[in-house]
Amino acid sequence: MLTGEPVPVEKTSGKSASDGSEVTGGTLNTNGLLTIRVKRVGGETTLARIIRLVENAQLAKAPVARLADQVAGVFVPIVLVIAASTGFFWWYSGASANEILSYTVAVLVIACPCALGLATPIAIMVGTGTGAQHGILFRNAPALEAAQGLDTIIMDKTGTLTVGRPQVTQILTVEGNSGVPVPDEKEVLRFAAAVEQGSEHPLGRAVVAEAEKQELDLADISEFEAKTGFGEKAVCNEKLVLVGNPALMRAENVFNEVPENLAKQIISGSTPIFVAVDGKLIGVICLADEARPESKTAVRKFQELGLEVVMLTGDHQSSAEAVASKTGITKIHSGVLPEEKAEIVKQYQAQGARVGMIGDGINDAPALAQADVGIAMGSGTDVAMETSDIVLMKNDLRHVADALRLSRATLRNIRQNLFWAFGYNVIGIPIAAGLLVPFGGPALHPMLAAGAMAFSSVSVVMNSLRLRGFSFFKS
Ligand SMILES: [Mg+2]
Question: Does residue 11 belong to any structural domain of this protein?
């Protein structure tokens, strides 16, 4: 639950209660019996600490300064002063009460900042609506505003850049070394999958899934024996089949060391499962949590948008490097503890970076809350989605680039809206105040002022609706 990794971690007992492995509350014991000494309860548990980190990060988040609020804050008092001065001016120049009232009201009516008030919310409404139609869920308006200012994207690996489940990536055969005449890849997979039928282990399930994908018929097995932490043993087609790690092969006298030529072929970062039939090694099935097919394009899009891309993972350096090299990421932080993820985001922010964090697990939650914009995978945990600002409903990382572009487009739209809303007022107010009258020009009747004011709102709405035509990456 806490690490976000798909493969269970082996825990070993100690001689005394103090030197055994540490286990975390709320996680799953998949196999075996545990006798546990409880060291921390309630608010001191790891989960409670993560929740506290999330809450602190959320509290510390600075609110986004609203452009429209800033403009309106200056604009409204100025208009009131202009309206008052207009009335005073016409009273001073001896106009009739009717005229004074007409000019003053015309100024107030045309200055009504309703287009100004509409400028931001309408653009955000259309922007978020357009995003939602394409599976990009902005959970709050400030997120849409903040996304355009990002310069750094920090990404979790497992479940974010990768699918989050191990898959068969490679099958190696050992020729002329087995009871089976010439083992081919299908043969190796068929034996392994037969033994792994009904396995609860993620690696075993991945082997069976691959056999199903290749539409292999799996033989029945007997005398099945699961050796926790090692692998499985069973009789299949009257042959004794072993499927497991090097330790199992050593224990069953298949080999002492992994044959060198085989070891060389195993892609680094993947997990090998050895398959032996009647005491002879016939092949190796390699599994890895593969990068999502669109991850590479997504990383390139981020780089094109001028963002620095960083991988942040609790996994080992070798698995991290394997995924990084496939996706084009050059900056990696590996072996990061759940509590440290938010700390690393903070360090980037301290250096002046504006960070977008993408993650899926409970361990990512504090970092998602700490980041300027937290982005969660739709396939992720509820906690991650709850702490994030943007949710990718289709789990497509390219949508993050879309979200940033949409945010930029929306902000541009807001500025255009403000310009139009403000432009009407700048032109309209002097005319309404009767500035042209002394030069023989027309006065603006309050009713016409109301019409012009309404039209400014219409033009702002029309401008924002253009956002509906925003072009997304094809998915
Ligand atoms: Mg993860």
Answer: no
Alpha-carbon distance of 225 to 242, in angstroms, equals 10
**Which residue range(s) make up the domain with 444?**
68-122+410-469
Is 60 exceeded by the pLDDT of residue 179? Answer: no
Q: Are residues 104 and 172 in the same domain?
A: no
What backbone phi and psi angles, to 5 degrees, belong to 307? -95, 145
Last-in-domain residue among 228, 258, 288: 288
CATH number at residue 184: 3.40.1110.10
Question: Are 468 and 130 contacting, i.e. CB atoms less than 8 angstroms apart?
Answer: yes
Q: How far apart are CA 231 and CA 44, in angstroms?
A: 36
Can you name the residues that pair with 280 across neighbouring β-strands?
A: 277
State how far the Cα of 300 lies from the Cα of 321, in Å rounded to an integer: 17
Count of structural domains, the chain: 2
Active site residues: 156
In a domain, 58, yes or no: no
Residue 3 Cα to ligand 1 midpoint, Å, equals 7
The mean pLDDT value for 217-242 works out to 86
For residue 397, pLDDT beyond 70: yes
Task: Dump pLDDT digits (tens) for 407-453.
Answer: 999 989 988 988 888 777 788 888 888 888 888 777 788 888 888 88
- CA 288–ligand 1 middle distance (angstroms): 15
End-to-end, the C-alpha distance of the chain in Å comes to 30
Poorest-confidence range of 151-165, 293-307, 445-459?
A: 445-459
**Residues near ion ligand 1 (Cβ under 5 Å):** 4, 156, 158-159, 360-361
CB-based contacts of 242-248 (< 8 A; 24+ apart in sequence): 242/274, 242/275, 242/276, 242/277, 243/191, 243/192, 243/195, 243/196, 243/207, 243/273, 243/274, 243/275, 243/276, 244/273, 244/274, 245/272, 245/273, 245/274, 246/274, 248/274
Contact 368, 374 (CB under 8 A): yes
CA 311 to ligand 1 center in whole angstroms: 11
User: Which residues face 208 on adjacent strands?
Assistant: none
